Amino acid sequence: MALKKSQNNRKVETVGDEVDLHSLTVDEAIPKLEEFLYRAYQAGHFRVWVAHGKGTGILRQEMRRYLSKHALVRAYRPADPQRGGAGATQVELRDRIVF
Predict the structure, then answer these.
(1) Which helix (H) or strand (E) segment is 3 a member of?
(2) pLDDT confidence band for 12 (50 / 70 / 90)
(3) What is the pTM (predicted TM-score) of this model?
(4) Among 12, 14, 29, 42, whose CB has the most other CB atoms within 10 angstroms?
């Protein structure tokens, strides 16, 4: 997330399409992922990437388990090689929230 100046000179927070969770524990990563998903949805993103690294695979496994139950997530899959391959997950967000 970055700050940029809007037309009226106020700082506006923008949300990119990727969150980096490398070196975080699962307990640290889940709140960061949760916030990112909601901000990305509010910013109008329909496809985002979660960079979690390869490591032991625990973070990847838990992030995907979390995504599988999330109301904003329509689908997810391993990222293409140019976007991180097995070290990242591509997430498709819903066009509207379904509870």
Answers:
(1) strand 2-5
(2) very low
(3) 0.82
(4) 29
Are the C-beta atoms of residues 62 and 34 closer than 8 Å to each other?
Answer: no
d(CA 61, CA 81): 18
Which position has the token pair 């700050």?
3
pLDDT digits (tens, 9 = 90+) for 87-96: 999 999 998 7
Could you tell me the end-to-end alpha-carbon distance of the chain, in angstroms, rounded to an integer?
A: 27
Q: Find tokens 């009226």 and name the residue.
A: 8
CA distance 68 to 18: 18
Single out the residue of 38, 99, 43, 65 nearest to residue 89, CA to CA. Answer: 65
